[in-house]
Amino acid sequence: MLKGVKVRKVYEDEIDEPAREKKVKILESQFHKQKIREKGQQFDDIDEDEEKSDRQKTKEERNKENQKKGEMLFQQRQLQKAISECEFCLSNEKLSQYYILSQSSNVMLVLPKQRFYNSYTHLLIVPMEHALSIRDVEDDTYEEIRNFQKCLIGAFDKANMECIFYENAFKFKYVPHAIIECVAIPYKISKEANINLYFKQGMDELDGFWSTHKKIIEIHKNKGGIRKQIPKGFPYFYVDFSLKSGYAHVIENENNFSSNFAREILASILSVEKSNVLSPKVRTEQEAKQENDQFQLIWKQYDWTLALTRQ
Ligand SMILES: [Zn+2]
C-alpha cells in the first residue's frame, strides 16, 4: 500500500443504490442553484408567484412565469438526455469492460476510446457521479481521485515516467461528465523539457495579447487545492505536475479554448504528430484489452482498490 493512500470500505447498500435517479436529483439542484446565481433570486420566485391567484396576475407576470417554467423544464430534459447518452455513466453500459483498468467505489480508471498518444500512457480518471467538474464532486469521490493519482505517480515512477494531470472543465451548458486526464512522460524527456514553463506560457497566451489580467492561479495543497482555489460554477483549465505543483486558469471566453489545449502541448513535448491529437484513431476493444493487460503489469503493485475488496 502506498503511503498516504486512504482506503474506504465499499458497503453493499451503496452498490445497490439507484444511482441514476440520485445523480439526476443532485444535478438538478446544482443547476438550479447556478441559475439563481446567474439570474438573481427571481429565478427562484415561481413558488411565491403561484401563491397569487391567476386572476390577480397581470399578463406580463403570467408570461414571465411561463418562460421560467419552460426554461426549467428544458434544463431538466437536457440533464436527463446528457446522462442517458453519457458514455461514462456506467448505467448506460456504453463503456466496454476492456477500457476500465481499475475501479473503486466512486471512481474508475479508464483507457480513452480515442488514441491520442501511444499505448496506455494516456488514461482517464473518471468519477462515477455525473458531476460537471472535479470542483463539484462529493468529498469521498475526490479522495478516491487523489488515491488514483498517488498510485499512478508510484506506478509510472517505477516505469521511469512522470505523471501530468489535467482537466478541461468548460461548456457546462452541454452537461459534460468530469474527467481528469493523466499523461505519463518518460523522465528522460521531462527532465530536459521544462513542462511547467510550456504550460505557463500556453496559458498566458490564452488570455490574449491585450488582456491586462493574467489569470493563472498557482494551485497549492496548503491553500485547499483546486476545489478551494477556483470559485464554484466557473469554467476552468487545470494542470498538475505529479501533485507537486499546479496551475489553473479560469476560462473567460469558452470559444477561445479548445479541449485539445493540453494534448497539443504534450504532443509537442513527446514529439507526437499533431494530427494524432487533432484526428485521433479509435482504440478497438481488442487493442484496449491488450493495453489493459500491459498496464496491469505496472499497476498491480500500486492498485489501491485491491485493498477495498480484501476488507
Ligand atoms: Zn455521465
Number of domains as seen in the coordinates? 2
Strand order of the largest sheet: 1-2-4-6-5-8-9-7
Strand-residue fraction? 15-25%
Small molecules held by this entry: zinc ion
The major beta sheet can be summarized as: 8 strands, antiparallel
Q: Which segments are poorly predicted (pLDDT under 50) over 5 or more consecutive residues?
A: 10-17, 45-49
Tally of extended strands? 10
Domain Cwf19-like C-terminal: 76-195
Protein name: CWF19-like protein 2
Pfam families: CwfJ_C_1, CwfJ_C_2
InterPro entries: Cwf19-like, Cwf19-like_C_dom-1, Cwf19-like_C_dom-2
Tell me what you see in this structure:
Pfam families: CwfJ_C_1, CwfJ_C_2. One of its GO terms (biological process) is mRNA splicing, via spliceosome. This is CWF19-like protein 2. InterPro entries: Cwf19-like, Cwf19-like_C_dom-1, Cwf19-like_C_dom-2. Residues 52-71 have a biased composition (Basic and acidic residues). Mean pLDDT is 83; it is low at 10-17 and 45-49. The protein has two domains: 12-85, no CATH class; 90-310, HIT family, subunit A, CATH 3.30.428. It has helices at 12-16, 19-39, 46-51, 59-85, 139-158, 187-190, 195-206, 226-229, 261-269, 274-278, 285-299, 306-310; strands spanning 100-103, 107-110, 114-115, 122-127, 161-169, 180-186, 216-219, 236-241, 245-250, 281-282. The protein contains twelve helices and ten strands. A hairpin with a 3-residue loop joins strand 1 and strand 2. It is globular. The strands form two sheets. It has an eight-stranded antiparallel β-sheet with strand order 1-2-4-6-5-8-9-7, sandwiched between helices. The protein has a two-stranded antiparallel ribbon with strand order 3-10. By secondary structure, the protein is α+β, with helices and mostly antiparallel strands. The structure holds zinc ion (ZN). Residues 83, 86, 88-89, 130, 177 line the site of zinc ion (ZN).
